[in-house]
Design brief:
Blueprint (H helix, E strand, L loop, with lengths): L5 E7 L5 H15 L6 E7 L5 H10 L3 E4 L1 H5 L9 H5 L5 H11 L4 E9 L3 E8 L5
Parallel strand pairs: 1-2, 2-3
Antiparallel strand pairs: 1-5, 4-5
Helix pairs in contact: 1-2
């Protein structure tokens, strides 16, 4: 099953570097048995389009998909995020992964969320057809 379309949502502290983001993504994908070639987008809030994220995007060859506060706040999320208190948004990783999949007309079936060192949060969304 190597034809999945996977979208990774990323939330991270401003002092996180590209190596940390890259390591977290590798670890997350390995844990879930997802190939890097299956990732179709790195999804985050528009003000997190940092040089570090751009570096990871270029290295992996995966586009960055950016979303506004309004787009993020329109998504129903399962988990409460610290981003609500800090940035007045429902979250970053989970809603952005969902928005990335929705933008590309994928039917969402599964969301997995994980925090790395309390500095990076990743969420992954799989299309419904990818789980069969």
């Amino acid at each position: 099953m190597n034809n999945r379309a996977v979208y990774i949502g990323l939330g991270f502290h401003s002092d996180v570097d590209a190596v940390e983001i890259e390591k977290a993504i590798h670890e997350f994908l390995e844990e879930l048995g997802i190939g890097q070639n299956e990732v179709k987008g790195l999804c985050t809030v528009d003000f997190k389009n940092t040089e570090e994220l751009q570096e990871v995007s270029a290295k992996f060859g995966i586009p960055i998909l950016l979303f506004t506060r309004d787009e993020i706040n329109s998504v129903n999320v399962r988990s409460r995020s610290a981003a609500m208190d800090v940035f007045n948004i429902k979250g970053v990783a989970e809603p952005c992964a969902i928005l990335g999949a929705n933008r590309n007309k994928c039917k969402i079936k599964f969301v997995k969320r994980k925090s790395f060192n309390r500095r990076i949060t990743l969420a992954v969304v799989l299309k419904e057809s990818d789980l069969e």
